[in-house]
Each structure stands twice: as C-alpha cells, then as structure tokens.
Design a protein that fits this description.
By secondary structure, the protein is of the alpha+beta class. 64% of the residues lie in helices and 12% in strands. The longest helix is centred in the first third of the chain and has 76 residues, at 66-141. The chain is elongated, with a radius of gyration of 35 Å.
Length: 352
C-alpha cells in the first residue's frame, strides 16, 4: 500500500514537471515570436521614416545604415536572452526530475534495506533465544543422562555466543557511526589469524582454512578488537557463502607500500552490479524472504569502517575459477619494520 502511494506521488511529480516544461516551452516560443514581430514592425517604420527624410535611397543602403544595425543588434540580444532563459529553465526542470528520481530510488533502497534488516534481526534474535529457552525448559522438566546434558549445554552455549556476537556487532556499528577511534598497539597479525583459524576449525568442522604468510610480517599498529573483528567477519562470511565443504584461503603479505590481506573462497561470487554496495549498512545480496544464510548485513559494513579507521582500504574481486576475494591494504606507515628485523635476527641467532 505504501509503495503504491509512493509510485503515485512520483508519477504526479513527473506530470507536474512535464506540464511546467511544456508551458515554459510554449511561452518561450510565443515570446520569441512576439520579439520577431516587434522587430519587423520597428524595422518597417524606421525604413519609411528614413526614406521619407531622404536619409537612404535604397534597401541596401537601409540595411547598412547605423540605426538599422543598432536596432537589429538590440533585438538579436533579446532573442539570445529568451533562448538562454528558456534553456536554463528547461535544464533546471530536467535536473529536478533527475534529483527526484534519484532521491526516490535511494528512499526505496533504504526502505528495502530497513525491511530486510528488521526481518533478519528478528530471526537472528528469536532463534537463539528460542533454542536457549528450550534447553532450559528441558532441564526444568526432565532429568537427563550426563552425555545428553553435556550436548544440550554445549548447544546452549553456542547459541549464547551467537547472540552475544550479534549484540556486539550492533553496538560496534553504533560506535562506528559515533566516534570510533582505534586503540593502537603492536599486533602480531599472523598469530591472531592462526588463533582465529584454530577457533573456526572447531566451530565449522565442514570448512577447511588455509593460511599462507608470503613474507616476513612486521608488527602492525592497530586496534586488536577491531582487526580481530575484521578478520573474523571475513572468514565467517566466506564459510557462510560457500558450498560445503567450504575451502577458504587466507594470505598475508608485506610489500614496500602496504600490508596486504586476502580472504578467498570458492562460493557463488558477487555480481558486478552489487560489488559497490556490499559494504553498505544492512545491505545483503538478494532478498531477505529468499535468503537462507544467517546475518544482519552489518558484517561488511563494520569491516569497511574499521579498515578505513586504520587508513586502509578494502576491495572485492572475483576469485578464479569461482568465488570471491576480499583484499585489504593497510598502510606501510603503521608497520614497525625495525621490530620485524630484530625478530628475524634473533631467530637466526637462536638457530645457530
């Protein structure tokens, strides 16, 4: 109902602007014609007066006379003014139509994303709460064998962790909009990645994670919580959007200009038209009614904002032969290369 009303308002706006364009075009033509008629009348009057006074003897002499040339120049300027004003008004109306159309599309997209978010957040909140409640009610009503109790407790803890992660994402997204500032400290990113992969291996037994460190990696000055959230979000996203068994490749490389992280999956990929939008808040590919993967559309938004807060950038590319690659480039200015060099020298000394 609301969508139908918006469409009617949009069509009404177009009709009003089209009517105004036609009205301005008509009045411009009419004014141009009146100006031409006025010029012709004054020209004929001037010719009669000049012939009667004997100032000019022929039509050619009249057309070369100073009074006629001044009169023609005056009315030519008026013609340009009429055409120029008409063009500006019509151009302004066309720009108005474009802005109305763009604003309408943005409003519809925001409404769609809000609807998708409400649907997903409702499901994401109700599902773990219902599972935890069911476990508690089971313990309340029945006495269970130890192994079954252990299994239910483990399930409830996983749902609690999922609920806690969702709340953390919501709070973090609110902080990012307000005043997020990284709490900088020296980070051993390879070690953080290895710890996360070890955790995810037990959480996703159907997934295979491959980590490759392609060079010596210097300590990185950044926010531990933020960078952990970035890497965890990207790896969990890769698992969610990949067919089982998920095959995830993570690489870390230091170049003279940047520290580069890549997260590659073998999933269905992201259409080119949606790649610029995937980092938008609440944005999810497809429609919430048909989407099967869990999520709120906050993950990639959080990733992009945290990377930007660390002066880095993130991009999305196609993987070969299929899937998606998320590439993060962090500035070399945040790397402590002297610490890395000392670490290499220490390792050589210990090996000797």
């Amino acid at each position: 109902m609301e969508n139908r009303r918006n469409v009617r308002l949009r069509l009404l706006s177009y009709v009003v602007i089209a009517y105004m364009m036609m009205a301005f075009a008509w009045w411009s033509v009419l004014l141009y014609t009146k100006n031409s008629d006025a010029f012709a009348a004054k020209r004929d009057k001037m010719r009669l007066i000049m012939v009667a006074e004997g100032t000019v003897q022929s039509e050619e002499a009249f057309l070369q006379s100073a009074p006629y040339l001044e009169l023609k120049q005056q009315y030519t300027r008026q013609e340009y003014m009429i055409l120029g004003e008409a063009g500006v008004i019509i151009l302004t109306l066309l720009v108005g139509m474009y802005l109305i159309n763009r604003a309408y599309n943005k409003e519809m997209e925001a409404a769609r994303q809000q609807r998708n978010f409400l649907l997903s957040i409702t499901h994401e909140l109700k599902s773990p709460i219902a599972s935890i409640r069911l476990v508690l009610e089971t313990f309340q009503r029945r006495s269970l064998p130890p192994e079954k109790s252990e299994r239910l407790i483990r399930s409830a803890l996983l749902e609690t962790e999922r609920l806690n992660g969702l709340v953390s994402d919501l709070l973090l997204s609110a902080r990012l909009e307000a005043a997020y500032k990284p709490h900088e400290e020296g980070l051993d990113l390879p070690q953080i990645l290895e710890d996360l992969i070890e955790t995810l291996d037990s959480k996703y037994p159907d997934a295979r994670f491959h980590f490759e460190k392609r060079s010596v990696i210097s300590p990185f000055r950044g926010d531990r919580t933020g960078m952990t959230s970035v890497m965890l979000n990207l790896m969990e996203n890769a698992v969610k959007y990949s067919p089982k068994p998920a095959d995830i490749e993570v690489s870390l490389e230091e170049t003279p200009d940047a520290l580069i992280l890549r997260f590659a999956d073998q999933g269905h990929g992201i259409p080119d038209k949606e790649k610029p939008q995937v980092f938008g808040k609440f944005y999810r590919i497809g429609n919430e009614d048909t989407r099967k993967t869990k999520g709120t559309g906050l993950g990639l938004y959080i990733v992009q904002q945290i990377v930007a807060a660390h002066d880095g950038r993130i991009s999305v590319e196609d993987n070969q032969p299929k899937g998606t690659v998320f590439k993060i480039e962090l500035p070399a200015e945040r790397l402590d290369k002297q610490a890395a060099q000392r670490s290499v020298e220490m390792s050589k000394t210990q090996s000797q």
